[in-house]
Structure formats: structure tokens, C-alpha cells
Amino acid sequence: MSHTTTHPARFQVIGPRDLDTLPALQRLSPATRAEMRRVARVLPFRTNRYVVDELIDWARVPDDPLFQLTFPQPDMLTPADRATLVRAEHAADPAALDAAVRAVRRRLNPHPAGQSSLNVPTLRGRPLPGLQHKYRETVLFFPAQGQTCHAYCTYCFRWPQFVETDAPRFASRETDDLIAYLRAHPDVSSVLITGGDPMIMRAEVLRRYVEPLLDADLPGLTSIRIGTKSVAYWPQRFVEDDDADDVARLFEQVVARGKTLALMAHYSHPRELSTPVARRALARILSTGAVVRCQAPVIRHVNDDPAVWRELWRTEVQLGAVPYYLFVARDTGARRYFEVPLARAWEIYRDALAAVSGLARTVRGPAMSATPGKVVVDGVAEILGERVFVLRLLQARDPAWVGRPFFARFDPAAAWLDQLRPAFGEPRFFFETSGADAPGGDVAGAPRRRALPVIQGAA
Q1: What is the pTM of this model?
Q2: Architecture of the domain made up of 122-432
Q3: pLDDT tens by residue, 16-43
Q4: Where in the chain are the domains?
Q5: What's the per-residue H, E or C state across the chain?
């Protein structure tokens, strides 16, 4: 890793075919590289020259956190799935190998938290696969040209967007349906343009998605968000690419039209903010009037240490960005390799928060983007002689659930909501009996809601 090299003028992809030829990997054994190729058959692998040359400390590989974050790791597959692939490889039948890969992918929970079954809204009875609408005030939009990234995170919960699976991808090539849907749902105040990574698009393509939102006369729309990892994996996008100035002008245009332009920046480790070009990129974005909010999950092998988060949040605040979310890695993909138990995630959050000033305590977490909503672990307590997790919904499919505390039996091994059980002898959590519908109602009417049951002792 060096910060003295000249940053490449041209974006250069590194993919599965480079695993055997990349000079830096030759220090790993042939058997390890073979396992990495096997993982890359199942889960997407893509990085770039900047990540390889500037972010990874090759003297620490394979334990380096940025290497763990961007390169396939042998233990990302279970022994059983690895054996399935080995048998298919030995059969030397491409069709059998393809079938084995697809079977492994299906076992990895490709669309968690009801993404495809509950979040896809309808317009005049027609599903809109390029949109998701889980929370009343926010609609997610997936531009077709933005469904890749400058580099893929190994934990990514949207990995099915980048590989062949049996499930459809989220993607839309135009904004007509989006705008019609927003007109029918005036409660929506924020559109999140997401992917993949929208900043993979040329400025002129991104403009074709953003400008219609500005011209549509949607008085309820107050903010446009862009979810991106480019600030970490290709910060040249904002300062050195040949259309970087056009990107800045587009951001300025959104702000000038009275909308908040919020860049939802994915920084997973303080090293991603350590290079001069990364800091220049953040300064350039902020100079347009955009706000930058920073979020990432806590990931084993990468950032499961309060000292890492403390440094990350302090650096973000120092550079003018806002720490926003510490997430729990979603229950998909190589989750068992990366997952951190909820009790440990809460300790990491608590200890990191205790070591920063109030300016960094804007960050919320550890938060699970689960089926009912964003569930935050507020702490561990003993109540009526029972040790419990104290939980709360920060966002919810039903707005009446927001802020509602609830309790789960303490389980030191639990790493996701579905592994928790209600405390105090309750048969189920309150949201498990409501049957509330997803907030994607048809244009003929508002999103449907059902009355919530009253559970004794619940706020």
C-alpha cells in the first residue's frame, strides 16, 4: 500500500480472470487462489487498480481488512457448498457446474427482508421492479445503468444484482413510472437512487434520471439521495474523471432547485478516507452544497473493533461528513463468514460512541434492515430478573411502529432478528401478528394499513 504513487488516469477493472495473474496475489498458495476462484464462481468479484494499489496493505494479506472487504475469501462458502462445486468441477461438464453454482446461490438467501416479495410497489395494478417502497416517506429507485460498482464489497447484500440468479433484478431505464408513482403517493418526501452504484454512470446519464425529478413539480419531494461506495473505491469520480465537473454541476443544480442532495457514502474503514484523492473528493462534493451521510455495516475481519469505528467517525466529522448508521450485516450471501453477534455489535457501537464527541454521536446502530423495518439494538438490560435485548424500530413498514420499544431474550450467539425470541413469555413480537401490508399501494388508493394488536406491556 502506497499513497505516493500517481493515481491512474483510467479506471481499470480487476476481476476473476485476474486472480491467477495479479502479481500481488502470487504470495498466496495455489490452493488458496483456487479456493478464491471457486468463491468467485458464486459471489461477484470485481475490484480496481486504485483499491489494489492504494487501499490494500499487501504486507498484511490475507488478514488486511481492505483485502477481506474486496477479495473473495475461501471460507465464504460452507464446506458443503464447496464440496458441491468441487464435484461439479471434476465432472468437467459446464452445464452441471452452472447448475451447481445456481443451487448454491439459491441457498444464500438472495433477496432478504422481503425485497422482492414485499417491497416492489404497483402502478395501476402493474408491478414496478425498478422501485422499492418499504417506508412511507422514501422510495428507492434502481437506474438500469447503475447496477454495477467500481468494486464489490464481499459482504454485499445486493450481490444478486451482479450475477445470474433465478430472481429478477431491480432495474428501470426511465423515470416516467417513478414520477407517476410519486404523484400518486404525495407522502413520499425522499427518493433514494441506488444500485449497484449510481455513480458508476456518466454524468449525462445520471442527469437523465435526476432532472425529471426536479422538473416534475412534486412539492412533497424535498430530498434526492444517492447511495454510493465510489467515494471509497473510486474517489477520482468526483475530481479526476473527465466528467467530474459535470457531476459537481448536477449536484449544484439539485441544491439550487431547493432540494437536499444527500450523498449516502459507504465508508467501511478509516483507510478509505486516508488517501489525498479520497479527501479531495469529499471536499469537492461538500462544496456543491450536498450533504454527505456515512454508513456501513459492522463486518467480521474488517471493522469489528470499536477503535476502527472511533477513528472512522472522528475522521468523517473532521472532513465535514455526518456519521449516520452502523448497520448489522444482512442475512444473505456469505453471512456466516462476516456476521458479528448482536451483543458484540452493540458493544462495538457503545465503546466507539463513548470515545467520540457529540458531533459524531449522530450515528445510529447497530441497526438491522429486517422485514418489519430498521430494528436498532438499544442495549442489554436486566428486567424482572430476565436478561434482555432492548430493541426499537427506527423505521417501519407501518409508521405506527416507529419508536416502539420491544424486548427479546438475551442470546449471545444471535446475529439477526429471526434468531431472537420475545422476552417475558410473550409468544411473538408485536409485528409478527399485525399482517400489515407493504407500503406500495396502487394508484387507486393509499397504502393499506391494518390495525395493530395491543400487547400488554408494549409501549
Answers
A1: 0.89
A2: Alpha-Beta Barrel (3.20)
A3: 999 989 999 999 999 999 999 999 999 9
A4: 122-432
A5: CCCCCCCCCCCCEECHHHCCCCHHHHHCCHHHHHHHHHHHHHCCCCEEHHHHHHHCCHHHCCCCHHHHHHCCCHHHCCHHHHHHHHHHHHHCCHHHHHHHHHHHHHCCCCCCCCCCCCCCCEECCEECCCEEEEECCEEEECEHHHCCCCCCCCCCCCHHHCCCCCCCCCCECCCHHHHHHHHHCCCCCEEEECCCCHHHCCHHHHHHHHHHHHHCCCCCCCEEEEEECHHHHCCHHHHCCCCHHHHHHHHHHHHHCCCEEEEEEECCCHHHHCCHHHHHHHHHHHHCCCEEEEEEEECCCCCCCHHHHHHHHHHHHHCCCEEEEEEECCCCCCHHHHCCCHHHHHHHHHHHHCCCCHHHCCCEEEEEECCCEEEEEEEEEEECCEEEEEEEEEEECCHHHCCCEEEEECCCCCCCHHHCCECCCCCCCHHHCCCCCCCCCCCCCCCCCCCCCCCCCCC
